[in-house]
Amino acid sequence: MSAPTAPVSPVAPTAAAPVQALAASTPVQAPAGTLLLRLGRWSVLLPTRAAVGCLLLAAVLLVATAAALAVGTTSLSPVRSLPALVGVGDPTDVLVVQRLRLPRLVAGLLVGAALGIAGCLMQTLARNRLATPGTVGIDDGATAFAVASVVGVSTSLAPSAMALVGAATAAALALGLAGGAGTSGYRFVVVGLGVGAVLGAVTNLLLVRAPIDAANAAFPWSVGTLNARPTLPVTLLALGLAVCVPAALLVGRRLGALRFPDTVAAGLGVRVRLVRLAALAVAVVCAGLAVAVGGPLGMVALIAPEAARRVCGPRGVPVLGSALAGAVLVLAADTVGRTVAAPVEVPVGLVTAVLGCPYLIWLLLNSRPRRLP
């Protein structure tokens, strides 16, 4: 016979068990002003105002897209232009929409989105509303190198590659001479203006000394236009945005912490130097590829982020809203340029400059440039 065993006492419940049970039974509530989206084990918090603002900008973009397809020298109603977009309807309508208007529509969407993202990241990086690829010399550097490639090399790949090199060169010069962006935002803008002026003079010198045929071929890169854009630079811009948009969204989440001093941001776990370098790299790629397609479209990178902040709210860095606002602005300016003096076409770069100059004057006269997150 085996010896009787002592009764085993039940394990006393730990203090954490009721807490864990309560946490498991209580649904997680989203903070005020945010939306909680769940997909299986994954969840994401979205600011309510930013989500509504992006939806509003997307709706405006759809209207601008429909107008860009319908309005022109040959006006088409939406009933005719939208079916022609997919090859249905009168052959003349299909030709006008698919061969003439759709390519510049796609180019305008991509260029506007790229410039909006670049402007948003640059303004946030330098903590200055005036710090855009146009004001710190990045657009001028991309333009100068693109014009040099058109004058010297007769290949369609050269403008895109050289525009990236020029944008990176201008950013490196402005950043190095200013002693870094972020803590010296105003100095970064002033130095960038000087770098842009020098590179702009280089562009003019190249155009003056080039043969007439080469100068005519390079001229669109100096004023900004979406007319008859080559397919290869547009494709490269689309591929670049496919990489830069997710990267900009990730960097934008970290840039929000840089509204605090660097020591505080570092204490929150943000790698300040790495985040600034990544933001600058994304802005340079977006601006360089956009200039390689449409040339220097002035004021787009200045107005689009500000419009996105007003629509989406001050919380966070409105990367997606800036992309949508930039696309709306470029499409609207291109439509105005095609129709206001038809059959003569006004380059879209001139239209954006005319539309943006009153805003810039108002910004300088009525408010002091403030630090941005």
What does this structure look like?
It is a single chain. With 373 residues, the chain is mainly α. It has one domain: ABC transporter involved in vitamin B12 uptake, BtuC (Orthogonal Bundle), CATH 1.10.3470. It contains 15 helices and 2 strands. It has helices spanning 16-25, 48-70, 78-85, 91-126, 138-152, 158-178, 185-209, 212-218, 220-223, 231-255, 262-267, 272-294, 300-312, 319-339, 348-366; strands spanning 34-39, 42-47. The protein has a two-stranded antiparallel sheet with strand order 1-2. A hairpin with a 2-residue loop joins strand 1 (34-39) and strand 2. Helix 4 crosses helix 14 (319-339), helix 5 packs antiparallel against helix 8 (212-218) and helix 6 crosses helix 12 (272-294). The longest helix has 36 residues, at 91-126. The radius of gyration is 26 Å and the shape is globular. It starts with 15 loop residues before the first helix and ends in a 7-residue tail after the last helix.
